[in-house]
Write a structure and sequence with these properties.
Blueprint (H helix, E strand, L loop, with lengths): L2 H26 L1 H10 L5 H21 L4 H19 L7 H35 L5
Helix pairs in contact: 1-3, 3-4, 4-5
């Protein structure tokens, strides 16, 4: 099996694992996550949390699978990552070591969003080459 045939699916699975495990963690720690979301002003948390779990767990599984819908799901997860990043890692409102930590976490998440956009682009390219998606 050629190396890219192994590396590309492995990369998708590794990237998607962040979302899959995040969704599972939110299920396992449902009440604490609900309180954190509500405390962060994300209301109605009782509706947003199940939607977040569905997006992270379901979306992560779709991206990991490499299904052609992963093009769109990866882009949705990228937007989700950037949006939650702005809410939870507002380094510009902080000073000192906490600001430095949040800055690092913020740009880690920007990199993850970039990887998701890349996965969407590579999946679209592969689909276009197979004639499944106009590209």
């Amino acid at each position: 099996m050629p190396l890219p045939a192994i590396i590309i699916p492995l990369g998708r699975v590794l990237l998607a694992s962040l979302f899959i495990l995040g969704g599972i963690n939110k299920i396992v720690n449902y009440d604490a996550t609900l309180a954190m979301m509500a405390g962060g002003g994300l209301e109605p948390a009782t509706i947003l949390l199940p939607l977040t779990i569905l997006l992270e767990l379901g979306g992560g599984l779709v991206v990991a699978s490499g299904h052609r819908f992963s093009i769109y799901v990866a882009l949705i997860l990228a937007v989700f990552t950037i949006a939650t990043n702005i809410i939870f890692h507002a380094f510009w409102t902080m000073t000192g070591p906490e600001a430095a930590l949040q800055l690092s976490l913020f740009f880690k998440n920007i990199s993850i969003a970039g990887a998701l956009v890349y996965v969407a682009g590579m999946t679209a390219k592969g689909e276009a080459q197979r004639g499944s998606v106009a590209g």
